Amino acid sequence: MANQTEMILTRVLDDIEQGVLTPGSAIDEDALIEACGVSRTPLREAMIRLEAMGLIVRLPRKGATLFKPTLEQFVAILEVHAQLEGQAAGLAARRMSGADLAVLEQVVVDCEKHAAQKGDDDPDGYYQLNLRFHGTIAEGSGNPFLVDMIKTNARKLLAYYRARYQYAGAIADSAVEHRALFDLIAARKSDQAAAFMTRHVQFDQVTAMDLLAALG
């Protein structure tokens, strides 16, 4: 049953990352059972775990929905997430190997090419590159517990980061900041990399309000 529970968890988490599920979306439990070929017992276990992670909300007789933050919750989660990402960048600056840095630089190059060739078009494509960039840095921290914490918090915010790339100029700005952050990490400037990453992932309150409104 443990493997079946993990199968359901993976399916839901993938749907969050791919934007299939967005904040406030209802979780179709019957569809999950059919798609994964499982019974209700592993489904129930998966829902309990997702709720404990803060990713879904379950209400009696109303089923489960993907967590949708209020403005206050959004700002609070983002504040924690920015600190976690900053910590990962600082550690990555000290710990990434030459091979790891080469992988990260290639992601940066891909971001730059996307921004130069497509401009504001294909924000979803750039969003996937952004996930690779931040994931590579998180893994480069060498701290699996920190990586798990970042992933859990990020999944509460992914829909809003995806929406952010719909704004004119956001992709180009992000690509420039990715290059600057890479340069700090490659130069082993740990404190500066941490501070830069913290600023990079933050939204001001007006932008946060706009994003919350855009996603209903």
Q: Your description of this structure?
A:
It contains 11 helices and 2 strands; from the N terminus they run H-H-H-E-E-H-H-H-H-H-H-H-H. The chain folds into 2 domains: 65 residues, Winged helix-like DNA-binding domain superfamily/Winged helix DNA-binding domain (Arc Repressor Mutant, subunit A, Orthogonal Bundle), CATH 1.10.10; 144 residues, GntR ligand-binding domain-like (Four Helix Bundle (Hemerythrin (Met), subunit A)), CATH 1.20.120. The longest helix is centred in the middle third of the chain and has 25 residues. 30% of the residues are buried. The chain has 216 residues and is mostly helical.
Concise synopsis of the structure shown:
With 216 residues, the chain is mainly alpha-helical.
Radius of gyration using CA atoms only: 18 Å
Q: Number of helical segments? A: 11
What would the CATH topology of the largest domain be?
A: Four Helix Bundle (Hemerythrin (Met), subunit A)
- The beta-strand count equals 2
Query: Percent range for helical residues?
Result: over 70%
Parts with pLDDT < 50 across at least 5 consecutive residues: none
The neighbouring-strand order within the major sheet is 1-2
Largest sheet: 2 strands, antiparallel
Q: What integer is the average pLDDT?
A: 92
Q: Which second-level CATH architecture of the largest domain applies?
A: Up-down Bundle
Shape: globular
CATH superfamily annotation of the largest domain: GntR ligand-binding domain-like
CATH class of the largest domain, please? Mainly Alpha
The ordered string of helix (H) and strand (E) elements is HHHEEHHHHHHHH
